[in-house]
Fold this protein.
Amino acid sequence: MYTIAGKPVDELVREYGTPLYVYDENAMRQRLGDYRELFRDDEMETEVVYASKAFSCLAMVRLAAEYGFGLDVVSGGELYTAGKAGFDMSRVYFHGNNKTLAELQQAVKARVGTIIVDNAMEAEVLAALMQDADYRVKTLLRINPGIEAHTHHYIVTAHVDSKFGIAMTDEAEVVQTIRLLQACPNIEFAGLDAHIGSQIFDRNAFAELVRKLFAFAVRLQQEYGIRVHTLDLGGGFAARYTEKDAPIPLPEVCRCILDTCREENRQAGGLIRKVIIEPGRSIVAEAGYMLYTVGFMKTTPNRHYIFVDGGMSDNIRPALYQAEYDALIAGREEDTPAMTYTVAGKCCESGDVLIDAIKLPKTEPGDILVMKTTGAYGYAMASRYNKLPVPGVVFVRDGQAREVIARETYEDLISHEK
Ligand code: LLP
């Protein structure tokens, strides 16, 4: 039987039912440990910040804390989760292009360490809010370096018309915004932040980003006397979804970034003290599996359909980004593929196809279909479309399973309804 972190999937299905989000905790720990070891430098301070949008829950936030990570949050809800998990607030990075006043107040009350200011209006609101705060918050200014990383266009965040950040080319606006922040005694302007996209395979994109940010930091100092000492390079490191994907191995991507930073920093006379990265997907994606039970099947002139008991409600990525996934039939993963199937969900929408075409051994109703690499932006983007309860989440470590989020019940579905 196919196992996840030493636990046979048929046991998981018996104990927790399907559909089910399962995480190999050993794999996540390995990944967190690798980042911690690899993103280190003798000349610059470094910090790895887990982008909790990829998968946020108490257990995951605690895991990130255990490995000494910082935490990227993008909403009051993610911030609240971090607080409930007991995460050190001074290590929290609060992102977002449209933080509400209530969210900013919540952040200041919680004494969040760093706020990433996304635009000029936010700087004004924050400065006003910090006037009578009882601590000093660090800020990074999100800038748009105009780099288009090679990835799906929906998730590129740095093209010229991006809603995120101030364009690097709009220097007057950048300078004015930084001055506004610097004028507030309770705000420390620490440096620049950028994020050039997600699921990036091209290492040149990261090297290019580093060079652009360093050049800009130097320019800000020389032209305007603005001191930048921290650079946050964002996330975007790719995961392997199917055999077509060849992500840059972690040691290489870390080395590439750090080598480029060191080189640039020497030329910049040691201007930069600290470099930050914010991986999300690359920590949780490959550790995640989705377990489904095969239900009805049908053959049309062009397709052999397998219907599963979940779908776009637990994983919107295929429908939204045409994301591709690999899967297997538990207990028959070694069998020779019998035919090409289309795996579709149970939602009332033709676009609810999880895998367009996959070769699998002969499949029957009742089989367990294991979809791989579902750990990032799956649970995080789940919906209750068709009033399907959100499935539970189970972590498996050394053969031992623990439920970290209970499956929703029908009662939960209407619990807020009046
Ligand atoms: N930092 C910032 C400022 C970000 O905007 C993001 C992701 C990250 C870090 C983490 O990026 P990662 O390492 O996970 O690629 N829902 C899409 C992905 C959206 C990513 C948004 N920002 C998907 O399912 O592919």
Notes: The mean pLDDT is 96. Residues 51, 53-54, 72, 95, 155, 157, 195, 198-199, 234-237, 278-282, 317, 321, 377 surround LLP (CB under 6 Å).
